[in-house]
């Protein structure tokens, strides 16, 4: 009888469903396994609930799956059809789990916190209507403000028109604006005797440019008709133009543009307060350029070889343009390349050597490296294009 360890029971308490228990869970009566019979009322332990609970044995067996299938069948079949039942009344066991009924629990939660369902479509419509209402209010407010500004502007214009008409009527009545033009005296001030202005006399013999023959030119400024006049006549015409320009002073002006650093005369350098790069070189530049090339962030780097090479490269940017670098070299023996001005390059090398411990050869090599780098970059640009 050791195989009969399981029993299908019907719990007698309200709210307890059918269940499958072990015979060892029966506490009252305590009998040997072979003495338990179908229909016996017992007190047994129920899993999940403390204490002993009354139950009625419906079936005893050793196959748990078979007992569970029987339990599922009894849940949908009246108890009266069960062979172990002696009662005449039919009764269906409850299928809901033990404890608080879910329906009762839901009803209690509903009583505590009533939930009001809102349709999302209706909610969106309400939001759209509210947004539309705010937009209409702002629109009406803007219209009222514009109307108020228009009324204010019209009022101001009306007042200005009234004042203007009143002033105009007063002037007409006074007759100050009706004076004849020929009675007004016009006074001219003569030009002051200044050296910058030359006195122009009506008796001076000037050649009028309008009397010279007009030549037709195209959009680029070239003559459309070839000059087929004799050589002597052409020369006399050029002299006539030159004389007219000279006497009338059409091209008499001063050049206010500052000269570019490089080989300049001492007079020009003195006029524009330029500084000679090295004594006797004839190469001039501005003082702010010298301050720029000698500027360093770290004072300890001043005077080093790298400092001298840096000065030389910056001076090359000042005296020459970057467009000249790809086609130029330092050596006069270079074939197929132009040569930078030797006077300027020598002055750059001497100045850089004076300001640092770098040798002239190292400085010259750094300058050549700058030109080589420019040639390489230009070749890459041509290849990619």
Protein architecture, described:
It contains nine helices and ten strands. The protein is of the alpha+beta class and 385 residues long. Among the domains are: 76 residues, no CATH class; 123 residues, Arc Repressor Mutant, subunit A, CATH 1.10.10.2590. Strand 4 and strand 5 form a beta hairpin. The radius of gyration is 59 Å and the shape is elongated. This is BEN domain-containing protein. One of its GO terms (molecular function) is DNA binding.
Chain-wise SSE layout:
Blueprint lengths: L5 E6 L6 E5 L3 E3 L12 E6 L2 E13 L2 H12 L26 H11 L7 H55 L56 H18 L13 E2 L2 H6 L3 E2 L6 E3 L1 H7 L11 H15 L8 E2 L8 E2 L2 H14 L4 H25 L1
Parallel strand pairs: 9-10
Antiparallel strand pairs: 1-2, 1-5, 3-4, 4-5, 6-8, 7-8
Helix pairs in contact: 7-8, 7-9
Provide a brief overview of the structure.
By secondary structure, the chain is α+β, with helices and mostly antiparallel strands. Helices cover 42% and strands 11% of the residues. Residues 84-137 are annotated as: Disordered.
Q: What is the helix content?
A: 40-55%
Shape: elongated
How many strand segments? 10
Q: Which class do the helix and strand fractions yield?
A: alpha+beta
Question: Quaternary status of these chains?
Answer: single chain
CATH superfamily heading of the domain at 262-384: BEN domain
Number of helices: 9
- List the helices and strands in order: EEEEEHHHHEHEEHHEEHH
- Give the end-to-end Cα distance, rounded to a whole number of Å: 101 Å
CATH topology term of the domain at 262-384: Arc Repressor Mutant, subunit A
Report the sheet-strand fraction: 5-15%
Largest sheet: 5 strands, antiparallel
Biggest β-sheet: strands ordered side by side in the sheet: 2-1-5-4-3
Q: Rounded to an integer, what's the Rg over CA atoms? A: 59 Å
| Overall average pLDDT | 75
CATH architecture title of the domain at 262-384:
Orthogonal Bundle
Poorly predicted ranges (pLDDT <50, ≥5 residues)?
80-100, 177-209
**Which class of the domain at 262-384 in CATH terms?**
Mainly Alpha
């Amino acid at each position: 009888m050791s195989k009969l360890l399981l029993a299908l029971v019907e719990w007698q308490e309200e709210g307890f469903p059918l269940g499958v228990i072990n015979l060892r869970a029966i506490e009252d009566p305590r009998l040997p396994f072979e003495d338990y019979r179908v229909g016996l009322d017992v007190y047994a332990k129920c899993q999940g609930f403390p204490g002993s609970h009354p139950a009625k044995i419906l079936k005893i067996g050793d196959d748990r799956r078979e007992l569970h299938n029987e339990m599922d069948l009894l849940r949908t079949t009246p108890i009266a059809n069960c062979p172990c039942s002696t009662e005449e009344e039919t009764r269906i066991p409850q299928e809901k789990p033990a404890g608080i009924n879910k329906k009762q629990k839901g009803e209690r939660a509903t009583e505590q916190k009533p939930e009001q369902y809102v349709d999302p479509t209706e909610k969106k419509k309400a939001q759209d209507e509210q947004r539309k209402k705010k937009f209409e209010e702002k629109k009406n407010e803007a219209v009222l403000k514009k109307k108020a500004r228009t009324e204010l502007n019209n009022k101001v214009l009306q007042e200005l028109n009234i004042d203007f008409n009143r002033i105009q009527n007063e002037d007409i009545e006074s007759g100050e604006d009706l004076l004849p033009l020929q009675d007004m005296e016009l006074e001219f001030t003569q030009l002051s005797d200044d050296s910058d202005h030359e006195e122009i006399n009506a008796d001076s013999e000037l050649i009028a440019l309008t009397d010279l023959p007009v030549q037709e030119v195209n959009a680029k400024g070239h003559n459309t008709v070839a000059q087929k006049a004799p050589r002597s006549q052409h020369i006399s015409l050029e002299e006539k133009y030159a004389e007219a320009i000279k006497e009338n002073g059409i091209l008499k002006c001063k050049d206010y543009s500052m000269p570019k650093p490089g080989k300049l005369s001492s007079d020009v350098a003195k006029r524009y307060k330029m500084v000679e790069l090295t004594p006797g070189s004839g190469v001039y530049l501005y003082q702010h350029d010298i301050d720029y090339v000698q500027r360093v962030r770290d004072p300890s780097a001043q005077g080093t070889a790298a400092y001298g090479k840096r000065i030389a490269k910056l001076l090359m940017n000042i005296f020459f343009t970057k467009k000249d670098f790809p086609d130029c070299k330092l050596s006069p023996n270079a074939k197929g390349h132009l040569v930078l001005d030797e006077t300027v390059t020598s002055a750059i090398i001497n100045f850089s050597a004076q300001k640092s411990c770098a040798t002239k050869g190292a400085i010259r090599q750094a300058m050549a490296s700058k030109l080589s780098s420019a040639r390489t970059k230009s070749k890459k640009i041509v290849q990619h294009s």
